[in-house]
Write a structure and sequence with these properties.
Layout (H helix, E strand, L loop, with lengths): L1 E8 L17 H13 L6 E2 L8 E10 L6 H11 L4 E9 L11 E10 L12 E3 L5 H8 L4 E4 L14 E12 L2 E8 L6 H13 L7 H8 L14 E7 L17
Parallel strand pairs: 3-10, 5-6
Antiparallel strand pairs: 1-3, 1-4, 2-3, 5-9, 5-10, 7-8, 8-9
């Protein structure tokens, strides 16, 4: 049987999603160890999107195969009993054998959270990106509009990105403010390595008045990462939601259940 799970985690506690050499603590490593205990056999999972060290998730989706006779409740609470406090399985359900957490996904949504105050945060430390500058969210929103649509995002991906094509389609990019917090919400068919963090870095520079909003488009048209802006820190980034074809019946993360 193939099982899909919804996962949330505090990325500050992990060295990224993917298992790495050297025994580093990763979300994948902890999750596979927890599920293997429940299944009583080795379990390997595939995820919707690999997140970097420090990046959080509210709506990560994974799948795995098992012939162990367990209830969905057992998968959820059994896994959580063996996971560290910084990660939780939120839901579980059986899916068709042709479902794949990564390749069946049609859209992904990320949120980047910026705390704007001259003094660094304490309670929110490692949960937001901090910028001491007074950012203008209206300028950032104007800049973000230049990135909507299908584009070559070479200037907005990491130099070491291994994706075969730099072309991605951004369906929406919204910028809003709530008191000292600025939120960048971006939804696309898929994302390149560091794409959201590089977009956030450009928008923050524009919000600080150091560049004009049109610079976001100019960077895009250069198709050269070395001529782009700085990469924003990872701890402001959240994988919020992954959308699949309706026939798979995968739950969506609703606004009422968001952390932010």
């Amino acid at each position: 049987m193939r099982i899909a799970l919804g996962i949330e985690y505090n990325g500050a506690a992990f060295s990224g999603w993917q298992i790495q050499d050297g025994g580093l603590r990763t979300v994948q490593g902890c999750l596979e160890a927890a599920l293997s205990k429940v299944a009583n056999h080795p379990v390997r999972v595939a995820c919707a999107g690999r997140t970097d060290a420090g990046v959080h998730a509210i709506g990560q989706v994974v799948h795995f195969d098992s012939d162990a006779p367990r209830t969905l409740r057992s998968w959820i609470f059994g896994a959580n009993a063996n996971l560290p406090d910084e990660a939780s399985v939120v839901w579980a359900q059986p899916v068709a054998e042709d479902f794949h957490a990564r390749f069946s996904a049609r859209r992904r949504r990320y949120r980047y959270v910026i705390f704007t105050r001259p003094v660094r945060p304490t309670v929110l430390a490692w949960r937001v990106a901090w910028d001491y500058r007074a950012l203008d969210e209206r300028r950032m929103a104007e800049a973000g509009a230049h990135l909507i649509g299908e584009h070559d995002f070479s200037s907005y991906r990491a130099l070491g990105c291994q994706a075969k094509s730099p072309v991605r389609t951004v369906y929406r990019l919204d910028v809003m403010r709530q008191n000292d917090l600025i939120f960048i919400d971006i939804e696309a068919n898929a994302f390149l390595h560091h794409m959201v963090r590089n977009i956030a870095g450009v928008l923050m520079t524009i919000g600080a008045g150091e560049r004009e909003p049109v610079w976001a488009r100019e960077v895009l048209e250069l198709r050269d990462r070395t001529l782009g802006g700085v990469t924003a820190p990872p701890h402001g980034l959240y994988l919020m939601d992954v959308a699949y074809p309706e026939e798979f019946g995968i739950p969506r993360v609703l606004p009422t259940s968001m952390v932010w």
